[in-house]
Specification:
Elements (H helix, E strand, L loop, with lengths): L1 H18 L14 H15 L5 E15 L4 E14 L10 E2 L5 E2 L4 E2 L16 E2 L5 E14 L2 E3 L7
Parallel strand pairs: 5-6
Antiparallel strand pairs: 1-2, 2-7, 3-4, 7-8
């Protein structure tokens, strides 16, 4: 009978564990990692540039934990390099035009900058940026997660 008292709760726990998401059982080291940083970056690239963009390479160079003073929550910041292929290009309507004197201009709402970033900050390029079809763009970027009551919020607005 004593074996049965141990076996039944153990079997019940195994059934619960098999049917619950991994996040539900996170007890230690529940911070986001490189896989979550990669997902946030991929989401931002597809939102900011083109939904058909293909993440070719992603490597976290460094990360650190943040104690966000005054806000009462923790954060984790990742710095990474990535390569993204744009089979269809991005924002083709923003392709620069060249005047007879060689000066290049872009349409209203577009940026002539060829610095591509998904980093959310005050100086981020907010206008649309042209990327020619088939181009592979190198990113040297960063992303951050802020701890909240529901999990870790990425800069794509999703909880991880």
């Amino acid at each position: 009978m004593s074996n049965l008292k141990i076996l039944i709760p153990a079997a019940f726990a195994m059934v619960l564990a098999a049917n619950a998401p991994a996040k539900a059982f996170c007890l230690i080291n529940c911070e986001p990692g490189p896989d979550q940083a990669k997902q946030v970056f991929d989401n931002l690239v597809k939102t900011k540039f083109d939904p058909d963009a293909k993440l070719v390479e992603f490597k976290v160079d460094r990360f650190w934990r943040l104690d966000v003073e005054g806000s009462g929550h923790a954060g984790v910041e990742f710095y990474f390099t990535a390569k993204v292929e744009f089979p269809k290009g991005a924002h083709l309507e923003c392709k620069p035009t060249e005047a007879a004197d060689g000066a290049k201009t872009v349409a209203a709402g577009c940026s002539a900058s060829t610095y591509y970033s998904t980093t959310i900050q005050n100086q981020m390029i907010k206008e649309k940026q042209y990327i020619e079809p088939g181009k592979v763009v190198d990113f040297k970027d960063e992303t951050r997660f802020d701890q909240s009551s529901g999990g870790w919020k990425g800069q794509d607005g999703k909880l991880y």
